[in-house]
UniProtKB/TrEMBL annotation:
Provenance organism: Mucor velutinosus
Lineage: Eukaryota, Fungi, Fungi incertae sedis, Mucoromycota, Mucoromycotina
Keyword Kinase: no
Family affiliation: Belongs to the ETT1 family.
A GO biological-process term: positive regulation of SREBP signaling pathway
Compartment(s) where it occurs, according to its Swiss-Prot or TrEMBL record: Nucleus
GO cellular component: nucleus
Designated name of the protein: RTP1_C1 domain-containing protein
Amino acid sequence: MPVEKKRPRGLKGSAVAKANKKTKTEEQPTSTTELPENAQTVVIDKVVEEGDEVGEAAALFESALEKLETDPSAALPLLRGTIHESDRILRNHDSKEPLPALFYYTYGAALYELGRLTEDEEFEPYLDAAEERLNEGLALKDTELHNKIHLALAKIWLAKAASAVSEGDQSIPELSLKALKSLDEALESSEIPSKTVVELADIVQNHGDLYESLESRSKFRIWAEDALEKVLKDEPANAEALSGLGYCKLSFANYLLDNIDEANEQEEKTELTEDEEKAYKAILESKKYFEKAKEELVKVNKVSPQILSDLAEAYLNEANLVLKEEEQSAIYKKAVENIKEANALIEEKKLEFILPEALTSFLEEFEAEE
């Protein structure tokens, strides 16, 4: 039985938090020196030359980045360890020769990542410290690390600019424009791993979601879409890029739907408005990318609640814009299937992922009316 048409508006409305944060934790330190001297010792699974303390810290950070993809909580001790070791190396350094750029890159990038895992009010001190370390590394003019440092700085500038975006002022902060310029230069001057490009596109897209102005949002969305399309040109089966592009399209559709004047909507619609048509087209595009991403993830047994949630949202928004009741009902059922699949996966693997409230509410309403 079809349920009342309700757009899951605002499913991505936590963009202010999501733009710069991966997962909130109970992490509290506001300075690197607060880390205890007996910080947790972590086994490094990288090959590092004996006695190379900078290399060990860098390897520890690499391990943290790998953990961030699957288990942010497990990455916390690795990031703390990286910062603790970097702080110790810096305090004990008494040579006239500066520490290598790798040291400052590792230190700064680790501060940024740890900041992303903390509560919002704790982020700014991490950003300031991270930027300072990265600039120190940049001053050493290491050609091998030049682009990596610039990419890391661009992330920090976008995070800092996020706090400057307000309802009253929808102009794009200079830091945001500076970040995009830095990203463009880095991507043009060297081969950046596709994994990094996808991550950057996600950060840029989510930054764009902070703006209420379509013109401002579009600048970041289009940048992200272009970057992801370049990845897919070389790697058409890249599930992360497919999912990212799907989210870009869905974000655009959600914006259009959120700004439709519901007071003017008819009881029984016979045709879509111009903005609804645009949203519908974007939703179909997002669905195409999400379905392809899920298909690729199924092949390698890596389907996640996130892709199922995104796909369910796309189906739900599509159904809300379909005028024929029978067709609408069939699409609603596809949304339900993906929500249930996500719930089953969360329960089976005991994941901490929480489905958007709009999806769980829709499922309850749908099942109650069957």
